[in-house]
Each structure stands twice: as structure tokens, then as C-alpha cells.
């Protein structure tokens, strides 16, 4: 009987893990780091992952149940991924919880900073938040990409959100658009 319970949990987590995989993949697009100016470091990759997670979590919050339940599972998958990164990077078992606490504070702090920037009417608010947290050189380009991604996600229901490939648009810098 106990083994059936583990199987059901794994079966329930499979779509969430797949969704997180698509979010993580989108956050690693090279253009975000090259033209977008996000530093190609652990911190920069964390910022990019947080931005993409924010957009998906925001969309899940807008959808009817059971989408809200998936939000916590998606956050759990994200933090498991980050914890594994620390462990694979050689962080000791004693230090991992301290690092995870700091990462959690940073993650939720970013979410709180980005929400008013997306919800408000000031188009520069998002650029300013990105400039402070993610990209000092390419904040306006990243803001344009995020607004495009948000518009794409807004058209998706839960089923489409869980299965759409790719979930986010390709990052194309404004310079590349003007050169074409």
C-alpha cells in the first residue's frame, strides 16, 4: 500500500517537473546573458530563473483551481533544483540550509519587487526593478522580452501551460530586430 502512495506522488509531480524544466531552459537562453546583460554567473542565472518563475507563478495565480496548488509544487521543484546545484557545487551539508534560506529570501524579495512593476501603469517600473536586480546594461531589452512573455502566458489555460513547447518566446534583443 505504501508503495502506491509514492507512485501517485511521482505521477502527480511529473507535469510540475516538466513545467519547471521548460522554465529553467527558457531562463538559460544565451541572449539573456549576451544582449540582455544578465551576468553569466550563479547570481545572474538565479535572477533569470526567478524572472521566468515569477511569470509562470503569476499566471498560475490568475487561473482557476487547481492551478494555485501547482504554484507551491513548482516552487518546491525550483528550490530542489537550486539545492542540488549547491550540493553539486561542493557546498557542505551544514552550509546548504543557510544558503537556501538566503536564496529563499532573495527569491521572495524579487517576486515582491516585480509584482508592482507588472501590475502598475508605469512602463519604466519594470526596467528600474530589472536594473536593480538582474541587468544593469540591458534592463530595457529584458523588460521588453518579459512583457512579450507575459502576453504569451496570459493566453494559456492550465493544460496549455503544462504542455506547451516552448513556454517562452525566444529572446531577441532589440538591436537584432533593428538590424534585420
Characterise this structure:
The protein has helices at residues 2-27, 30-34, 42-62, 67-88, 96-119, 123-133, 139-154, 158-163, 174-179. The protein contains nine helices and no strands. The radius of gyration is 17 Å and the shape is globular. Mean pLDDT is 89; it is low at 176-180. Helix 3 runs parallel beside helix 7 (139-154), helix 4 (67-88) crosses helix 5 (96-119) and helix 6 (123-133) packs across helix 7. The protein is an all-alpha fold and 180 residues long. It starts with a helix and ends with a helix.
Q: Tell me, what's the shape?
A: globular
| Element-level helix/strand string | HHHHHHHHH
Q: Beta-strand percentage?
A: under 5%
User: First CA to last CA: what distance?
Assistant: 61 Å
Work out the radius of gyration: 17 Å
Helix content: over 70%
Structural class: mainly alpha
* Main sheet overview: none
Mean pLDDT: 89
The tally of strands reads 0
Number of helices: 9
**Low-confidence segments:** 176-180
TL;DR of this structure?
With 180 residues, the protein is mainly α. It is 76% helix and 0% strand.
Topology, element by element:
Blueprint: H1 2-27, H2 30-34, H3 42-62, H4 67-88, H5 96-119, H6 123-133, H7 139-154, H8 158-163, H9 174-179
Helix pairs in contact: 1-3, 1-4, 3-4, 3-5, 3-7, 4-5, 5-6, 6-7
Give keywords:
mainly alpha, globular, disordered C terminus
